[in-house]
Amino acid sequence: MALKITKRSGYISWDEYFMGVAALSAMRSKDPNSQVGACIVSNDNKILSMGYNGFPRGCSDDVFPWDREGEPLETKYHYVTHSELNAILNYRGGSLEGAKLYVTMFPCNECAKAIIQAGIKTVVYDCNKYEGTPSVIASKRMLDAAGVRYYQYQHTGREITIKL
Length: 164
Hints:
26% of the residues lie in helices and 16% in strands. It is an alpha/beta fold.
């Protein structure tokens, strides 16, 4: 009699996998206050692109400011590219039409515009730190109007450790 072998249990779900990739991408950010990562995935669960918040190519993170308060041109806000936009701009394929975006923080209104224009149809986010702010309210309003589905990632409580 042949012994039937079954697949192992306890493997991670697609949402865990891709949110994990987004969280790992966030660890590349040099921002001392907010590390945000994003991962764009095709309909057949292939990673298309990744990004994290940081300065544009050629703008040294040793020269440009990381401050959150002060004169506008002496803070990071006019210079930093958000993880979602970086992931969209990093994509070297063709269209992102119908793709899914995993991101560690709910997208701001500026990133929502890029998400909609890129044709991304689903956003899975981890935290919504700025919920209720004009930026998030505007973002949700635009995502809703454009038919972009979004939902919060459901934590499983599983701890995943990577030793390098």
